[in-house]
Amino acid sequence: MYFTFVLASFTSLLAFIPSAFAGFSSSSNTNIAIYWGQNSYGQGTGSLAQQRLSYYCASTEFNIIPLAFLITIANPSLNFANAGDSCTTISGSNLFYCPQLEQDIATCQSTYGKTILLSIGGATYSEGGFSSSAAAVTAANNIWSIFGPRTSSSSPRPFGSSVIDGFDFDFESSVSNMVPFANQLRSLMTASTVSTGKKYLLTAAPQCPYPDAADGAMLAGAVYFDAIWVQFYNNYCGLPSFTIGSSTQNNFNFATWDNWAKTVSLNPNVKIILGIPAAPGGGSGYESGSTLASIIAYCKGFSSFGGVMMWDMSQLYSNPGFLDAVSSDLGLPASGGGGTTTSATATTLKTVTKTTTTTAATSTATGTVGQWSQCGGIGYTGSTVCTPPYVCVTTSVWWAQCQ
Description:
Blueprint: H1 2-14, E1 31-34, H2 53-57, E2 64-72, E3 77-78, E4 88-89, E5 96-97, H3 99-110, E6 115-122, H4 133-147, E7 166-171, H5 178-196, E8 201-204, H6 216-219, E9 227-231, H7 254-263, E10 271-277, H8 289-299, E11 305-311, H9 313-317, H10 322-330, E12 374-376, E13 392-396, E14 399-402
Parallel strand pairs: 1-11, 2-6, 6-7, 7-8, 8-9, 9-10, 10-11
Antiparallel strand pairs: 2-3, 4-5, 12-14, 13-14
C-alpha cells in the first residue's frame, strides 16, 4: 500500500518536472552514453590506460557518463579499476574517498554539461538483491545519503560535496526486491528535485532478449525509467543479427523494445538507447562502418529511439574514429524502422511472465576458445574451455565470454 501511494505520488509529480537534464535530453535521438570506470581495454599505463574522468568530459560528442560500478549495495563498495589508485579508504566503511572524482564530477557537470550517473551492479555483483521490501527501502535511503545531496555528517561521501545526476542499474543476474529499491530512489530524487530544482535520471541496462532475466520485474511497468540502454551485444539478438535492407527483423528485436516503451513502460516517453561495443574487445557483436550506420538508421525510425550507449570509455579511446563515426551516423536520416518483428513478444508484452532458466550450456565441441569469444550461455554448443590464461565468465543467461 505504501509503495503504491509513493509510486502514484512521484509519477504525478514527474508530469510537472521539465525533462531537460544536464546533458541527457528526453526529446533527442542523438544522446550518447559511455561507461567509465572499468578500464576494460586493460592497459595499466600509457595513453590507452583509463584516464581520470575530466580527461574525457572535454569531448563534445557524448553527453552521458555512467560511472561503473557500485558493486555491493547492502554494505556499499565501489570498483573503478585503476581510477581507485588515487582514492583513500573511508574509516568504518568499505568505501573510499576520491578527491579527483569529487573535482571531476563537478567539472564534467558544470563546465562540460555532462550527465554523470552511478551504475549499480556489474558482472561481479553477487548479492542477489534484498531479502525484503523493507531491506530494499533501507538500502535505498542509505545509498541516497552517500551519493545524493549531503544531509548528514555521519554518512561516508566517496565523491565529497559532488552530487551525481542519478543512478543506472546494470544487473547481469536475477535480483530480488529491486522494485522497492528503485522506487525509493526515484521518490527521493523526485522530492529533491521539487525542493532544489536539480533534476535526476534513472536508467537501466538490460540484455536484448525480452523479458530481461535480471531487470524484468522493474521493467514490467513497475519503475519509472527515463531511459534504458539495451545491450545489443553478447546476445543472439545483438547487432550481427540485423538484416540490412529489411524493415522486418527477426532476432534483432529493437521493435520489441520500442513496443515495450509504448505499451508497458510506466514512463510513456522513455528513451530506448542502442547499446553497442565501442571496439572489438568491448563485447561480442562489434559492428562498424556502413553496417552500424544501417542499424542506427533503422532504429531512428522508431519514436522511442534516443541514441547510443557504448561499453566502455577505454575501449572507445583504443578505437580511433569510432566515436566520430557514431556521432555522424546519429545525424543521418532514419531509414525504414518502425517496422515489425516476427518475435511474438512484440504483441504480447503486457502478458509476458518473467521466467529465468538455469539450463547450462552443453558443449559438443572440442578445443579452446580465445579471449573475448563466447564460451557458454543458453543454446550455445561450442567449446566451454578458454585458451589459457583466460577463464569463462558468465555475464547473462545468454552469454559467457573468455576474459
